[in-house]
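hey so i finally got around to running the thing on that chain from the lab meeting. sorry it took forever, my laptop kept dying and i had to restart like 3 times. anyway pasting the input first so we r on the same page abt which one it is
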Amino acid sequence: MHFKRCLTVLMVLSFVSITFADEEERVLRLRIGDKDLKDKTMEVSIETIYSAEKGQPIAFAEMIQEMAACRFIYVGETHNSFPMHQIQAKIISALYGQDRNLSVGLEMFPVISQEILNRWSLGILPECEFIRTGQWYVNWNYNFGFYQKIFQFAKEKSLPMYALNAPRDLISQIRMRGWESLSEEEKDMIPQPDLSHQEHRSLIRTIFESTHLPPQMKGRGLEMAFEGLYRAQSAWDETMAFYALKALEKEEGKMVVLAGSGHLLYNLGINRRAFEKSRLPFKTVVCVVIPKDKQVLEVSRSLADYVWGIPEEEKPMFPSVGLSFKKINGL
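ok and heres what got predicted. didnt touch it at all, straight out
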């Protein structure tokens, strides 16, 4: 996880840059989450997976075996990190080898786009048409190449893929005016987010305060901006948990949920909300980027069930052109 990029999932902070150094590492060592682990840390090194429960390295095959009884496997990402998407693909492939009753839940698609994912899983669409008719670059701002291996595997194996996200315009409305401002029809689509969890609020607040904020967001504006951000983040998490559970009602096996790490940290986001509603067992995998000037990175053992250390990239595999395509007046 690399918070300089991870915060882009919080689109209300899309204009904010974030420094690496101490502020980012502080987010990795918060004393929140699992009560038996939150006061303990472990040192994570490159190309090694660590079990939070054991506080030591674990083999990939052993990690997959420990996931056998789970209904949900959450695998975090920084959206423009190619190594993280390769890890997601590797986990999906291994879990498919364990049990072919596997489905994939996606942050990348709003729930109103489910039909296009159905057609993809059935092998009906070629890739170019899927990208175009699925409005990939309207729904998502990242090169399809980052995700190509995952989608090709799902198509090859006919794995059901489920859209989990809320439409962006509704999240924006919740950020600015609250869930109560939605119409009754919109409320049926977006469940009311719980804003009362203090540890989750503390996590998002710590990430928020780690950013370099413009002058207009200081003082009174800081609190207003954070409350709007927190409503949006909570609405995202609540919605994705709701639709992941709804999708799993149709499936006999487990679901792998792919989402930005900010939605999964300390098992307080999508994963917590889905568990509280269902009590279905789950595991979470989060990658952390080890800076070039360090051999190891100290993290809280409550950060995720498994923490995978990866090297810092020189630059993203695919360039960002700095624009995205949005609908304006239906165009």
